[in-house]
Each structure stands twice: as C-alpha cells, then as structure tokens.
Specification:
This protein has 217 residues and is of the alpha/beta class. 50% of the residues lie in helices and 12% in strands. It has a 5-stranded mixed sheet with strand order 2-1-3-4-5, sandwiched between helices. Strand 1, helix 1 and strand 2 form a beta-alpha-beta unit.
C-alpha cells in the first residue's frame, strides 16, 4: 500500500483580530481530497513584513520540517510566507534544498515536481510574484517616508540617542545565527541562511557565544 504524502499546513493573518480559520480549513480540505497526511498545523498572527527571525511560528515550522519527514508545505498564498522578496526566496531555497515542496493553493502550483526537482516555470512565476509584492511594499514605504519628511519640515525633532547593545541582547537578537554556528556552519553559510546577515555581525555573535561558553573554539 502506497504511503500517504506527509504535509504541514501554514496559515498566517496580519493582526490578532483576524482569524486563520478559513485558510486552515480550506487547506485541510485540500489535504483530505489529495489523501495527504497532515503532520502539523502552524497558525501565525503577525505582519508578513516582519523579518523571518522575528516570526516564532514560522521559525517553528522551519525547524519542524528540518527534523521530520515532511514532503510538502501547504499555504493559501505566497504572501503568507512573507512580503519581503529576498526572505521569501531564501525560505523557498531552504525548502528546495530539503526537497520539501511548497503548494500555493490560490495559484494551484508547487515549487517541486514529483521527483523532487525544482519546477523552473513555478520558480520563475514565484520570483515575478515576489518582485511585484516587493514593489508594492516599496511604494507604500516611499509614501510613508515622504509623509514623514513633510512632517519633519513643519515639526522639527531631535536626534535619537544611540543605545548600547549588551551581549545578551546580541545573542537574543540573532537566534538563527547562533543555531547555525552551533551546527558548525561557516560564516559565509550562516550569512546565506540568515537573510545575508553581515559577516561582522556573525563574528560578533560567535565571539560572544565563545566568551559565554555557548560555543567552543
């Protein structure tokens, strides 16, 4: 008897007053029609503009698929993963490397084919979609920035005083960097897997972790 395809469901809404129920239920219905085995459901209530490292539910899902035999991630639309095109593409590449396909329901497409190979047309479409999403986001930011500059002209404000970052704050700010350093990855590899975190920052995290006995030389 053929084993069922093992999947996880990921749903996200932007605010606490919204509900992930509709997304989750429709993805569960799809999984049932396809005779998939749903291993876990991840529901997130947070803005998609947040950095990947600032989204604990998304991080939990990525950790889960690293440690369990997940074959597919079911999402309602690409923006559920995020709105920053660079971070979204990094997540796609991370999943591709683990041979985990992402099914995007509103377009009825997957990132990998049945043999686990990257679907070139899908990849091309995803990059276009993400670019459009990012352009839209940039336009919003530009309008906000323009409004803020106009406000500053009529309402001068003082310069912010810089703050000192403690060792503990540094480590808590970069949990993914610390996780990959513990796995023995190189500085360059860690940078590629953590939204191109600067090598200087990674070195600071590494030195601090060694100083505190979290890492060994």
């Amino acid at each position: 008897m053929k084993q069922k395809t093992k999947v996880v469901i990921f749903s996200r809404v932007s605010t606490l007053i919204q509900d992930t129920l509709r997304q989750t239920e429709e993805l569960k219905e799809y999984a049932e029609r396809m005779n998939y085995q749903v291993l876990q459901i991840f529901e997130e209530k947070i803005s998609g503009t947040k950095k990947t490292s600032e989204r604990p539910v998304l991080q939990s899902m990525l950790t889960y698929i690293e440690n369990n035999p997940v074959q597919k991630i079911l999402i309602w639309e690409l923006s559920r993963i995020g709105r920053n095109s660079l971070e979204v593409l990094q997540i796609l590449n991370q999943c591709n490397a683990m041979k985990v396909s992402i099914f995007i329901k509103n377009f009825n497409i997957e990132t990998l084919d049945d043999k686990g190979h990257i679907n070139p047309m899908t990849q091309f479409m995803l990059e276009i979609i993400n670019t459009l999403n990012q352009l839209e986001r940039n336009n919003i930011v530009q309008r906000l920035r323009s409004g803020f500059e106009q406000y500053r002209k009529t309402n001068p404000i003082g310069r912010k005083v810089g703050s000192f970052q403690t060792e503990g704050e540094l480590l808590s700010k970069y949990p993914q960097v610390l996780k990959y350093l513990k796995k023995g990855l190189s500085i360059r590899q860690v940078s590629g897997l953590t939204n191109n975190t600067s090598t200087n920052t990674i070195l600071k995290v590494k030195k601090t972790a060694i100083k505190r006995g979290i890492l060994t030389v």
